[in-house]
Amino acid sequence: MSEFIELLRVNKDELERQYGAQISNDIRNAISAMLRCKTEQQGRSQWFCAHCHHDDRLPLSCGHRHCPQCQHRTTSDWLLRQKQKLLPTHYFMTTFTLPYQLRILARKQPKALYQLMFSVASGVLKSFAQRQQKGALGFTAVLHTHSRQRNLHPHLHIIIAGGRYDSSKQVWHKSNKQYLFNAFALAKIWRARLLAAINQHPLLWLPQNIPKQWVVDCRCVGYGEPALEYLSRYLYRGVLPDNDIINIEENSVTFRYLDSSTNTKKTRTLPTLEFLMLILQHVLPTGLQRVRDYGFLRGQAKALRVRIQLLLLNVFYQTPQATVTIKTKAIRTCPCCQHDMACVGISRPR
């Protein structure tokens, strides 16, 4: 059992009494799913081994994207799918950060704000690419909502292939390995467009004292795979892994985190209820897609992406790379004979 879920189970009623006004329906649904995860309330799956006739019954996972016990397989499958899309070129990671003064909107209207962040950031990148008239970009955007200390800190990590494809001429334009776009220019346009979009949105408003200088980071990350693995660690699992919770006392919880300024491990201790709300505030609204592909990396552009891959392979390599096979069917190894077991049924409580 996850230590975080066990803390939820013990403190659920007190958490509701103290923070009930701050707990949204999405957070309540997440709590309910996590408390049912791998229990009799969730149901069981039945497995059978055709080789030795061993059968087994296992409690079902809840499958919630914020549950620390679930989604490991989903993370692995996403990483494999993204690796299939990798091109033999260098990649950049661009990070669009929301300033502190606008984080109140993330608490009050998270779905509306996060949708705007995706649309504005992708529009900014497309505009910069159009100015250079070398073709379209391909990139993947991932929403993160927390800092290393697990405070609310919404930002977008965007992995961008280092090159453009001109579909009219069917030509690949290779970009500079160390430079994609000017980060200061990106930040200026990001600020102007996002503020304008917020001002026009019926559910959002502009707080006071908005800073004039915003932060956008743009750097080369090599050939893409390390950046994908970094992002995959935060996609489909809880905000804080159980192994980072190092001490639980009667009224407090201590967890460790990596301090980015010193690159050393530090600890943070909070009262139990405050710790639970610190993590639960990152539950995303239902229906919000936190990973989005654009350009020739989007799902509907598979034929175009294959054409680009073949074009680049003919330039850089003599033989094409092997295709990664993704297993989508649930399998389990038999504990008796080590053969694959088959899922033959699912039982759920009335």
Automatic annotation (TrEMBL):
Source species, domain of life: Bacteria
GO molecular function: DNA binding; transposase activity
Domain Transposase IS801/IS1294: residue ranges: 138-298
One record GO biological process: DNA transposition
Pfam families hit by this protein: Y2_Tnp (PF04986), Zn_Tnp_IS91 (PF14319)
Domain Transposase zinc-binding: 13-98
PANTHER family linked: ISSOD25 TRANSPOSASE TNPA_ISSOD25, TRANSPOSASE
Protein name: Hypothetical transposase
Source species taxonomy: Bacteria, Pseudomonadati, Pseudomonadota, Gammaproteobacteria, Vibrionales
Gene that encodes it: SO2212
